[in-house]
Write a structure and sequence with these properties.
mainly alpha, Citrate Synthase, domain 1, Cytochrome p450-Terp, domain 2, 2 domains, globular
């Protein structure tokens, strides 16, 4: 009897699983670095870059704090430059990452003005692309729009550096529009919300434009815009080895067009192992807040965290979201910077008690994880631990958490694409050893 579609699919998938599973002892036999990581979890050297660096510890200090470096400069120094002056830092960061140099006052004003002028989508694009083909996932909606922008670019396939620079600047400028409008289309189509589309304002920064376009009343406080801008700066770049930047290098090395390369990076960032963790942190805390009666009691909080590790709470993945990082160990510098600034907003919004709860989990979780798991290095709170909390304080819907990450990281992806092209590298093509046994072909008529 003919199988139903689901029976047929299940059978094919069971066969694919059986014929795909590789004996795990073979990885050691052939010295394959799974996930391109060594036995201690450290990434294998796959390239050289001058754009960004992620350092677990300062040189010669195995227990010191982590550092994030943009174009040779410590992120802490970059932030200490713009934050006290009350000016946005994301555009300056983009200019630095793309050109390799800090802009002077006149160059920065010029960069901002030109980026503002680039915040334009083709005529009818919002209606024809974003509203008509609305998606339940904003990252997919954005990727689809990025690929659609190819159609409107007369020099879409030109991979000369000036043309790629032009394309990247336009993408950096329009990402906030793609993110916000995709969300509005989704809320209108799937949640029955009113549809209000605000055009961008060229004089506003990237963060200000995002809040202006997102909110129906277009209003935001200077502190809100400043903190969103800071989050963008902290997410703009993370070396060449992170999954989406490496994807950008891999796809660019085939000499494909900018839109295809960036859409691929979006697909990578969407994954919950990469850009999707901050929404998980917020959801995990919602459960924690319900289940822990006394938020000020270490024992009660520890009990809940222990249940998370034993797969008895939240999504039963055994993870305390927002803790741990592939490279950082003692600390993630982005977390420290963000935490200090969020404290001000938490006080302004009257949620100091919840802020204390975050700090308590940040203090208690590393020891518990160290106790329950095999540790190669220490763990500490990563940037996602506080970024989701910040976005919630800014009333930003969870659907937009990863798109905000993309709005920032497009700067790093652009710099990495330009770097790959500038170095005229070879197509990235690592080796896979086949461990399948050789078999004899059986003619169709002879098969059982
Ligand atoms: C980010 C992450 C994937 C890094 O994992 P990693 O590179 O294996 O990190 P480590 O080498 O320090 O991990 C050592 C062990 O501790 C575990 N561990 C690390 N962080 C953990 C966490 N937050 N909760 C539970 N276990 C954790 C790891 O799974 C590993 O155990 P295993 O060998 O049994 O799998 C991991 O820390 C994690 O899943 N964190 C939670 C999700 C998150 O916040 N992601 C955002 C990252 S920016």
């Amino acid at each position: 009897m003919k199988k139903s579609e689901s029976e047929w699919i299940d059978q094919l998938s069971a066969m694919a699983t059986a014929s795909s599973q590789v004996d795990s002892s073979l990885y050691a036999k052939y010295d394959v670095k799974r996930g391109l990581r060594d036995i201690n979890g450290k990434g294998v050297l796959a390239g050289l870059t001058q754009i960004g660096d992620v350092q677990a510890h300062p040189e010669g200090d195995a227990t010191g704090p982590g550092h994030l470096i943009y174009r040779g400069m410590d992120i802490e120094d970059l932030v200490a430059g713009f934050l006290p002056e009350g000016r946005p830092g994301f555009e300056e960061t983009c200019s630095l990452l793309l050109s390799g140099e800090l802009p002077n006052r006149a160059e920065l004003a010029d960069f901002r003005e030109r980026l503002g002028a680039y915040r334009l989508l083709p005529d009818d694009f919002v209606h024809d692309s974003l509203l008509k083909l609305s998606s339940r996932d904003m990252m997919n909606a954005m990727a689809q729009s990025i690929l659609a922008l190819y159609v409107f670019d007369a020099r879409a396939d030109d991979t000369s550096l000036p043309n790629v620079m032009r394309q990247c600047l336009r993408l950096i400028a329009t990402f906030p529009l793609l993110a916000v409008y995709s969300f509005h289309a989704y809320s209108y189509r799937y949640a029955g919300k009113s549809l209000v589309i605000h055009g961008p304002k060229p004089e506003l920064s990237t963060a200000e434009n995002f809040l202006h376009m997102l909110r129906h009343d277009s209003r935001y406080t200077p502190l809100e815009a400043q903190l969103l801008d800071l989050a963008l700066v902290l997410h703009a770049e993370h070396g060449g080895g992170n999954n989406s930047s490496f994807t950008t290098h891999v796809v660019t090395s085939s000499l494909t067009d900018t839109y295809s390369a960036i859409a691929a990076a979006m697909g990578s960032l969407k994954g919950p192992r990469h850009g999707g963790a901050n929404a998980k942190v917020v959801a995990m805390f919602e459960e924690l807040k319900r289940e822990v009666k006394d938020w000020g009691n270490d024992r009660q909080v520890e009990d809940y965290l222990a249940r998370l590790l034993k797969k008895e709470a939240f999504d039963r993945a055994g993870l305390i979201y927002g803790i741990g990082h592939a490279v950082y160990s003692t600390s993630d510098p982005r977390t420290i910077i963000l935490r200090e600034q969020i404290e001000k907003l938490a006080a302004e919004k009257g949620v100091a008690e919840e802020m204390d709860l975050y700090r308590r989990v940040e203090r208690l979780a590393p020891e518990l994880i160290g106790h329950e798991r095999k540790m190669y290095k220490g763990v500490s709170a990563n940037v996602d631990f506080y970024s989701g909390f910040l976005y919630r304080l800014l009333d930003i819907p969870a659907e937009l958490f990863t798109p905000i990450f993309a709005m920032a990281r497009i700067a790093g992806w652009s710099a990495h694409r330009l770097e790959e092209l500038a170095n005229g590298g070879k197509i990235i093509r690592p080796a896979y050893k086949s461990v399948a046994p050789r078999r004899v072909y059986v003619p169709l008529a002879a098969r059982a």
